[in-house]
Specification:
Blueprint: H1 3-40, H2 48-72, H3 74-98
Helix pairs in contact: 1-2
The structure holds magnesium ion (MG).
Amino acid sequence: MDKIKEISQEALDFWGYELQSNMLIEEMAELIKALCKYKRFNYEQADPAIKANVLEEIADVHNMIEQIEMYFGEKEIASIRLEKLIRTKKRIEKLKGDK
Ligand SMILES: [Mg+2]
């Protein structure tokens, strides 16, 4: 188990699903806010601190998603993700063919 998974499992075991799912919701809201601000300040023209905040909030969401995936079952979610990505790839290929 890598370090990220090891610590994520420890956090999930310690705080439990209820608290960690609330944290995920909070972190997603923070990421939404950071992305809106990045857009409002015209992306790469924004103050570097605004972009740094986006990266921090992405990391926070990843860390909480990791724990919630562990709760619901990482393998099943990985399989659903792959199915969806394959569907996306087919959609892209179809759209490219339509051009
Ligand atoms: Mg955060």
